[in-house]
Amino acid sequence: xxxxxxxxxxxxxxxxxxxxxxxxxxxxxxxxxxxxxxxxxxxxxxxxxxxxxxxxxxxxxxxxxxxxxxxxxxxxxxxxxxxxxxxxxxxxxxxxxxxxxxxxxxxxxxxxxxxxxxxxxxxxxxxxxxxxxxxxxxxxxxxxxxxxxxxxxxxxxxxxxxxxxxxxxxxxxxxxxxxxxxxxxxxxxxxxxxxxxxxxxxxxxxxxxxxxxxxxxxxxxxxxxxxxxxxxxxxxxxxxxxxxxxxxxxxxxxxxxxxxxxxxxxxxxxxxxxxxxxxxxxxxxxxxxxxxxxxxxxxxxxxxxxxxxxxxxxxxxxxxxxxxxxxxxxxxxxxxxxxxxxxxxxxxxxxxxxxxxxxxxxxxxxxxxxxxxxxxxxxxxxxxxxxxxxxxxxxxxxxxxxxxxxxxxxxxxxxxxx
Length: 418
Hints:
Shape: globular
Number of helices: 14
Helix content: 40-55%
Structural class: alpha+beta
Strand content: 5-15%
């Protein structure tokens, strides 16, 4: 089957709304843990890489080349650099992606042996969906939450035990804050980890571009059997689940839904089938449909790219520098003009101002004081304190002494296999 590469694919094209909201809430919950989190996560990811490179099989052009070909095909469809891929010796059917810095994926030998090529491609697409969905940092926090909180609690206990009244009070207050943060973080992690799977499932479908294959993978995960399944019968299970029982049925439904970090497979299948029938999915994958597009030019770095008109009014990430850009509505001008005050490639000629129109506002780009994310703002708001849309922390808007250039540095990507 010839699959359509989705050049210029953005997270906003396929991210599930619940994932977007839950990830925002989670990032706010962990913002104050950043110093402890960075140290713990760095050590954890170094250990994971050492374990996999020493005890699993690294896939490449000269090692399981067919599997490596599936990885390259999936990355081409999702417009991603090729990460490292390992096969781990385990009879369990499982796969995962790890690493917020050096990103890699792993499949178990049980999965590789039981799944055909199309199904394996669907699984690879799902894990790449976590990478494309910017889930790696949140996954690392989830895997190390107890350690991160323990490190912060130890620091609070050390302050409290100094014997000096001021530091003791500060330690006690910090310790109480850690205790309260633990509950908030646990809830945020639990909520996000489930809805993040919906985004990854959508990426899986974008890679296979075949709903039957992706649904069959879910049925295979539910049964553990190596065969083709009756798709309609499997989908009916979601309907049976939703209509199960009366008052007591609702209690047990909620119990089942909330006891796992992943959504129920029948509900994932139902959610994916519903998305496959939307214009957003058809705009991306059906080459027979020529949908209207809007061309954008990032005001921060000058990168040009196009998005479907179905994203009008939504925020998307610039593929080069990552800042948020609001896609104009249908009635708005389709091109965001590059602003002369934030480029270094020479003065730009501004478009003529229509008769009777007001002078356009001056815009500036600076970076967040906490996470270094790019922030675009009207220059008149210089000095204002805002909440960074990237990390959730408060930061002050400022005019850089050297304006950010139009050629953004190339994003750091995982090393490519030869």
